[in-house]
Amino acid sequence: MAAPRTSAGALLSVEDLKVHFPIKGGVLGTTFAHVRAVDGVSFELKSGETLGIVGESGCGKSTLGRAVLRLIKATDGRVVWAGQDLFGLGAKALRDERRQMQIIFQDPLASLDPRMSVETIIGKPLRIFHPELSRAEVRRRVFETMNQVGLAASMANRYPHEFSGGQCQRIGIARAIILKPKLIVCDEPVSALDVSIQAQIINLLMELQRSLGVSLLFISHNLAVVRHISHRVMVLYLGKIMEIAERDDFYARPLHPYSQALISAVPIADPRLERGRPRLLLQGDIPSPINPPSGCRFRTRCPKATAICSEQEPAMRDYGVGHFAACHHIGE
Amino acid sequence: MSAEPAAAASPNRPVLSVQDMSIQFKLPQGWITAVDRVSFDLRQGEVVGIVGESGSGKSQILLSLMGLLAGNGRCSGSAVFEGQQLLNRPPKELDAIRGSTMSMIFQDPMTSLNPYMRVSDQLTEVLTAHQGKSKAEALEVAIEMLERVRIPEARRRIRLYPHEFSGGMRQRVMIAMALLCRPEVLFADEPTTALDVTVQAQILELMAELARDMRTAVAIVTHDLGVIARLCDRVIVLYGGRIMEQGSLDEIFYDPKHPYTKGLLASTPRLDEKVHGELRTIPGQPRAAMGDFPGCPFEPRCALRIDRCRAEMPALLGDDKGRAVACHVSGV
Q1: Fewest Cβ atoms closer than 10 Å to its Cβ: which of A147, A160, A299, A330?
Q2: What is the pTM of this model?
Q3: Which ipTM score applies to this complex?
């Protein structure tokens, strides 16, 4: 719970955020259980920082990204955005803040309206938030943004289906940056792309971050991609933070048994290294978030689990240089 | 079985030999070539990785060998498995081979398991149909196989329906089903792409064990070079329906010759990387639709291209140990 807190440069501060989805059933449609997708998550994001959020399917990483933008209603907790409580904002104030926060989705084609031309798609946020701009000015800025993401202005009149996956993702990125936002939530932005295209998009995001100074919440299941792009890394498991640390520190010294298992599970494209690597194979699959294990949520698959792990939830502890982890057995 | 004593004595005789296989699809604009004159051998106990971008034709090769090509597709060339021609065989004749001496696992287990049938019925059907076992015998063999792929409480779980299993468990059920008749050849089409890394690690371990212990020849299609590095003995690199390069695992990773192979390796972000600068990329996009053109399919994206590359597809030249490269500029 005692997560890293309050620094002056924080753009976004998430405090004990919870998102529970009701499961309804029966004839009366009564709620009989909750999916605890995000269950008490706290962290901060600095201006111009990239925080990588990793975890397996069902760990709540996408829900967290959406709840932070208030695209999903949080059950409990606070999100402080540039000094104000985001959940307390009225419709108009929220709308004004929304221009500062954007999202990029995993499936680039599905997130673009097939009946709109590329120019219309990319220019839409401008026309919504800046109705005073002339058509010529909107077009000028659209072309400028297309150029920034590596799309030729000659493509402006084409439709999404005429583009490959990588180019559609560039269109999505252009739409996200045209309002010069302060935060972009990237929800698995390169997972659907081929390796050679994935590298292009990662480079583009890193370059845009440098030139625009935007903060990124980079959600991915790919630990290698996250290592490449992030300043800090956060590991989620069943809606809870297991570990959060500076990038290099995290990969050199993962403290939580789950982080260690995750890292050892990723195959490295280097056969000699692979032959000599120790494997920490986890048993079984991730349990259901409807009825998560008592105490530490990872204990059912954890090689280090003991009695205390089922009785008591481990607190988030500081292991120096901003390295936090929640486990009873670190340092044994 | 082969009558030649030399072949029988060799520990690594080819079980499957593919020669000049081409696959075309009929589209409104005419016949489009998806795979162009691909040849390779598959030996006992060997794991061959086929790697390439989406649309490179890698899955179509496996589907054609299993006689599962889509209705608008046709294939030519030859694929000899245990002295029998596989390509363009009537489905009735293929049924004697498919599922018994040759089987396949797919990316999405839910689409290949029948949701209306108990797992026990689906598994025993394979054995009663191919090996004429009684139901009771078949059930024991099936339970044994589920235990072998490490499904806990197999005797109870075999009575369940596919939806009652988690994603990783379903993939194991499908692997168990594919292995029931102890096939000589196993085709795997992105078998772990839909799985979380911790579950992927378990499945890869399992497949390596099967190739080792049961001497099954495995051909695995994937876009993940890490998976290749962990599992395979030999690698075939496809681009635009053609083999660009093939060789042993170490040759491909430590001595790549083809510009596409080099680009692919360089653009993969690695979990163990020390530098975080720009990723090397392969510029441009893969061809949206393949036409019949005379040159090398990688030519538009290749940094080393010369005039000849556009006019003429380089032949796949190599030594007798299976090392081969198709490039005018950079050969073996």
Answers
A1: A147
A2: 0.86
A3: 0.81
